[in-house]
Design goal:
By secondary structure, this protein is α+β, with helices and mostly antiparallel strands. 39% of the residues lie in helices and 22% in strands. The chain contains three helices and five strands, in the order H-H-H-E-E-E-E-E. Strands 1-2-3-4-5 form a five-stranded antiparallel β-sheet, covered by helices on one side.
């Protein structure tokens, strides 16, 4: 019985250490919000990628929405404001958040998804 309990404790401890962690410097409660922001940015990047493939140029977020290339109605989530930054055929779907107050332990990373559908942090 003691061995079984020890195995359960070990398995639980091991499982907790394998759980994904949030972005460095962010609060664990931000994980859901950041996951939603990344999903929104992927959706924007997919619409932009399709637009570039069919038209040969980038479109603004407003253009993607008005042409129904992007089914998403909102341009923000939890303080993050979305935009599209274009440079020729390359683009970044970007989500920017106002910086945390000075001295705050929490930070709000600015996130982007590029034309290769890779999510990364931007300044």
């Amino acid at each position: 019985m003691v061995v079984a309990a020890a195995l359960l404790v070990f398995a639980y401890y091991f499982y907790l250490h394998k759980l994904p962690v949030t972005d460095q410097g962010t609060a664990p409660t931000q994980a859901i919000s950041l996951t939603g922001v990344r999903a929104d940015l992927l959706q924007i990047a997919q619409a932009e990628r399709a637009h570039v493939a069919s038209n040969g140029n980038c479109a603004s977020l407003a253009e993607l929405q008005s042409s129904n290339a992007l089914a998403m109605n909102r341009t923000e989530r939890d303080g993050y404001v979305y935009s599209v930054e274009c440079s020729g055929g390359d683009f970044n779907a970007v989500g920017r958040h106002v910086a945390a107050p000075t001295g705050s332990a929490i930070r709000y990373p600015n996130l982007a998804v590029d034309q290769n559908m890779q999510a990364h942090e931007v300044n």
